[in-house]
């Protein structure tokens, strides 16, 4: 086997970025090396996302750019990994004829073999989904890491089948990873200087390994060392248990930041989305979180313009946003995905301009709420985990507080991984700025 220089480019969610670290581990173990630029590569892997049509279009355009590299270097191998590979399978080979490898999210151990196939003139395709694969024995190569924070995937797949969502089809059945392997990975990251770990899954609250729940797991990780911060994403409102809320409240190094996607404020729409909670049940979870963890930041995801969404439904979403006063939100126009339940059952009947108008109203409101939340922090002192020099100036450092807000402060012999107390003096809707201080 000839060793190759491999370039990996990643799109999509944190799980996909975490998966690219697994792919890097697999190819390195097989004797290949990684490189930083597609121009230097013998193999280009694009780890892709299918969540919205736009995500796929971006990848398609990027593949066209790689095609021109292949024209100059016919030996260049191009592989499509991840959710688009799984969704489109061999159809992608027909549509993008210079693509050599298609590997779905559960097929990454097979990549060295697929590269071998291409060398012998056969296109390499593996899109088998697994009920067991968690890659738990692999030691991910931390790509693009700042040496302070790292992701750990704790489960794979999703079987909630929200009607709009492609993930259950691209990632297969939900399965939880061995808890001991997670705690070992976190311990070794801590011993290597990492200070923040994000536990990842499409629905971390339903983690279940042997008799252990997510509350047990997060506690075990937090107990590794009080200097290790623990975050997690994403939670599903229907599974946000009291036990988990109490665990977050009890352990100081579990970050006080809950990402709880609501999707819509209207119970009728939530039903049609198959989210399995009502507006009232969502608001009840928020109240419980606020009662036990008053300092918690709460962030969300919202889809606007879902099938049959009336102006009244839309107003109900705006009013829920005001009621909760989210600290931050990711907001999207509904994008119909082929093969999903929504595509089969409902018409994508909200005109593009109405979707755009509603999205803008949601964004405008959220900007106001984010600014209000940040203004509320002026005068407060936060413990900030320093990540690195700020983008704008070497004299400043940036890091995050427990609430996951970005904080900018003047560097004073500050090193990445230091905990620094910062008193907030200024803010925008996107970040806080302050001075280092003693407590
Ligand atoms: N598992 C997570 C997030 C999955 S994808 C969860 O359930 O919360 C991230 C976000 O993308 C979703 O929360 C949703 O807001 C958005 N999304 C998913 N499918 C979409 C679609 N078809 N159109 C628009 N937004 C979508
Ligand atoms: Fe998609 Fe719903 Fe699963 Fe999240 S919980 S990944 S939105 S099906
Ligand atoms: Fe995209 Fe797949 Fe993640 S569809 S959001 S990369 S699970």
Protein described:
The chain has 439 residues and is an alpha/beta fold. It folds into 3 domains: 5-126, Rossmann fold (3-Layer(aba) Sandwich), CATH 3.40.50; 149-375, Alpha-Beta Horseshoe (pyruvate-formate lyase- activating enzyme); 381-436, Nucleic acid-binding proteins (OB fold (Dihydrolipoamide Acetyltransferase, E2P)). The protein is 36% helix and 23% strand. It has 14 helices and 21 strands. The protein has helices spanning 14-29, 53-72, 83-88, 91-95, 111-119, 167-171, 179-191, 214-222, 242-250, 267-273, 279-292, 311-324, 341-345, 352-375, and strands spanning 5-10, 33-34, 43-48, 77-82, 101-103, 124-126, 149-153, 155-156, 175-176, 196-200, 208-209, 212-213, 229-233, 257-259, 297-304, 328-333, 381-389, 396-400, 406-410, 419-427, 432-436. The strands form 6 sheets. Strands 2-1-3-4-5-6 form a 6-stranded parallel sheet, with helices on both faces. Strands 17-18-19-21-20 form a 5-stranded mixed barrel. A 3-stranded parallel sheet has the order 7-10-13, with helices on both faces. It is globular, with a radius of gyration of 22 Å. The termini are far apart. The mean pLDDT is 97. Residues 51-52, 164-165, 167, 202-203, 234, 236, 261, 263, 301, 303, 332, 334-335, 337 line the site of S-adenosyl-L-homocysteine. Residues 12-13, 15-16, 49-51, 82-83, 166-167, 170-171 line the site of FE3-S4 cluster (F3S).
């Amino acid at each position: 086997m000839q060793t190759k220089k491999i370039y990996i480019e990643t799109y999509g969610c944190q799980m996909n970025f975490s998966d690219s670290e697994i792919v890097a581990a697999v190819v390195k173990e097989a004797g290949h090396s990684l490189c930083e630029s597609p121009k230097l590569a013998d193999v280009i892997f694009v780890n892709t996302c299918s969540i919205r049509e736009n995500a796929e279009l971006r990848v398609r355009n990027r593949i066209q750019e790689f095609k021109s590299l292949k024209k100059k270097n016919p030996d260049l191998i191009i592989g499509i990994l991840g959710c688009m590979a799984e969704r489109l399978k061999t159809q992608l080979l027909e549509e993008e004829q210079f693509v050599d490898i298609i590997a779905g999210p559960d097929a990454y151990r097979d990549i060295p073999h697929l590269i071998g196939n291409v060398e012998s003139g056969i296109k390499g395709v593996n899109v088998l989904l697994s009920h067991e694969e968690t890659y738990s024995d692999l030691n991910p190569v931390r790509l693009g890491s700042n040496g302070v924070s790292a992701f750990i995937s704790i489960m794979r797949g999703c079987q909630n089948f929200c009607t709009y969502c492609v993930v259950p089809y691209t990632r297969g059945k939900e399965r939880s990873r061995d808890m001991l392997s997670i705690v070992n990975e976190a311990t070794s990251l801590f011993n290597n200087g990492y200070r923040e770990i994000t536990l990842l899954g499409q629905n971390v609250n339903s983690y279940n390994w042997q008799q252990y729940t997510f509350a047990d797991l997060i506690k075990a990780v937090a107990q590794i060392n009080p200097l290790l911060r623990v975050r997690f994403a994403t939670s599903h409102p229907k599974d946000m248990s009291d036990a988990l809320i109490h665990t977050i409240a009890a352990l100081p190094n579990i970050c006080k930041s809950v990402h709880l996607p609501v999707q819509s404020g209207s119970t009728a729409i939530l039903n049609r989305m198959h989210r399995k909670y009502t507006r009232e049940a969502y608001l009840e979870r928020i109240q419980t979180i606020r009662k036990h963890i008053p300092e918690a930041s709460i962030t969300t995801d919202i889809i606007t313009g879902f099938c049959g969404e009336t102006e009244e439904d839309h107003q109900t979403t705006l009013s829920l946003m005001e009621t909760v006063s989210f600290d931050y939100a990711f907001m999207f126009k509904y994008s119909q995905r082929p093969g999903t339940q929504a595509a089969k059952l409902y018409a994508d009947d909200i005109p593009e301009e109405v979707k755009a108008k509603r999205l803008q109203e949601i964004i405008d409101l959220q900007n106001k709420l984010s600014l209000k939340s940040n203004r509320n922090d002026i005068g407060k002192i936060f413990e900030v985990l320093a990540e690195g020099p700020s983008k704008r100036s070497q004299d400043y450092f940036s890091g995050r507080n427990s609430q996951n807000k970005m904080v900018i402060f003047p560097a004073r012999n500050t090193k990445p991984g230091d905990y620094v107390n910062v008193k907030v003096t200024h803010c925008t809707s996107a970040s806080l700025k302050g001075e280092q201080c003693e407590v």
